[in-house]
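User: Can you model how 662 sits in this protein?
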Amino acid sequence: TRSTRPQRLLKAVQKKAIKGDPQSVISTIDYFCRHSEWAMNVGDEKGAILDSVVCEVSPSTALELGTYCGYSAVRIARLLPPGTKLITLEFNPDYAAVARQIIEYSGLQDKICLVEGASGDLIPKMQELFGIKTLDFVFLDHWKDRYLPDIKLLEECQLLRKGSILLADNVICPGTPDYLEYVRNSPRYESKYFKSHLEYTKVEDGLEKSVFLG
Ligand SMILES: CCCNc1ncnc2c1ncn2[C@@H]1O[C@H](/C=C/CNC(=O)c2cc(-c3ccc(F)cc3)cc(O)c2O)[C@H](C)[C@H]1O
Ligand SMILES: [Mg+2]
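Assistant: Here's the modeled complex, given as structure tokens:
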């Protein structure tokens, strides 16, 4: 049977990128998605905004919802201070398998903990599973109708503290209207929109950065 797009993306990384070099893995994926097959990675333009927020926060505990092929997991983990880890959740086993191989190829397997499962099931177990109290940084990039329920779950599970940063992809395209309305109008968040473009295109999209006020 025909390979899947993530499998073809993995092949390109294994063929073209330098093993152990996260930047070359990132550049190879961006080149593949721009010149061969589009894929829904956060991409280079929004990725630069993601990089700047990760560097600014320099999180001790970081969570990503929706690993997909592992592109943003590699982007985030390459910037984390030594001794800190990114926890990334992916419930599709085929995507998780590709992401594991891309993460391994980049050499960042010791800085990324990829957990197979649904955010709704795993978030309530985060403290016990990973021995963490609260999260400094959360990157949301999974199903767009799950952003709002999942941050409400993070609140309920006391995983957010005063100053925790949420960064959400695709708030314009495909769009996350209920999430935007909530973080922009809730007194518990201070929100800011970073205008950009949908990965590898000229279509408008952007990232929403929200600080939990406690
Ligand atoms: C109930 C499970 C919830 N919990 C979950 N727990 C764990 N993992 C979860 C959960 N829900 C989903 N996932 C995983 O996350 C990934 C899902 C990613 C979804 N991303 C998009 O849909 C998107 C679309 C476009 C786009 C824009 C324009 C177009 F024309 C076409 C496409 C662009 C973009 O940047 C986009 O990120 C992965 C595929 C999926 O297995
Ligand atoms: Mg996205």
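A couple of observations from the model: The pocket of 662 (ligand 1) is lined by residues 40, 66, 68, 89-92, 95, 118-120, 141-143, 146, 169-170, 173-174, 198-199 (CB under 6 Å). The chain has a mean pLDDT of 98.
User: Helpful, thanks.
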